[in-house]
């Protein structure tokens, strides 16, 4: 589980990935801290992608983005680097394969059925 800390600059969340245990072979270990990560909330992620928050949730449901859930939090956070990488990929016309377009359409239809039920 990641350790998280909320900063006051635009609600950006700072976290560390889990530490890495390095074995010395004699039964002792050294713990190497995980790399720091920055996480954003769904609204910030949607803005980074240039889409609505609803479209962002469709992208998550279609598997284009992976959300991070913390047991103690009721909110969803997304790795800012992953959002930025997706924004870069989406600019490339080859990213939108027929299978990916179909997955997004199916996820959108499922969300619409869920909200009308």
Give an overview in words.
The chain has a single domain, classed as Orthogonal Bundle (Multidrug-efflux Transporter Regulator, Chain: A, Domain 2). It is of the alpha+beta class. The radius of gyration is 18 Å and the shape is elongated. A hairpin with a 6-residue loop joins β1 and β2. Helices cover 40% and strands 24% of the residues.
Provide the CATH top-level class: Mainly Alpha
Beta-strand percentage range: 15-25%
Number of separate structural domains? 1
Rough outline:
elongated
Total strands: the figure is: 7
What oligomeric state do these chains adopt?
single chain
What share of residues is helical?
Answer: 40-55%
The helix-and-strand class reads alpha+beta
Low-pLDDT stretches: 1-9
Largest sheet: 5 strands, antiparallel
Question: If you consult CATH, what is the topology?
Answer: Multidrug-efflux Transporter Regulator, Chain: A, Domain 2
| Distance separating the two termini | 35 Å
Strand order of the largest sheet: 1-2-5-7-6
Mean pLDDT across all amino acids = 82
CATH architecture grouping: Orthogonal Bundle
CA-based gyration radius: 18 Å
The number of helical runs is 4
Name the helix and strand elements from N-terminus to C-terminus, one letter apiece: EEEEEHHEEHH
């Amino acid at each position: 589980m990641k350790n998280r800390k909320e900063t006051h600059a635009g609600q950006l969340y700072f976290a560390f990935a889990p530490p890495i245990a390095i074995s010395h072979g004699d039964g002792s270990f050294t713990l190497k801290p995980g790399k720091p990560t920055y996480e954003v909330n769904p609204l910030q992620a949607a803005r980074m992608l240039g889409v609505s928050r609803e479209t962002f949730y469709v992208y998550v449901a279609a598997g284009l983005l992976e959300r991070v859930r913390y047991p103690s939090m009721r909110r969803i956070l997304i790795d800012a680097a992953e959002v930025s990488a997706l924004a870069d990929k989406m600019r490339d016309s080859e990213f939108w394969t027929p299978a990916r377009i179909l997955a997004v359409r199916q996820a959108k239809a499922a969300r619409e059925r869920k909200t009308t039920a």
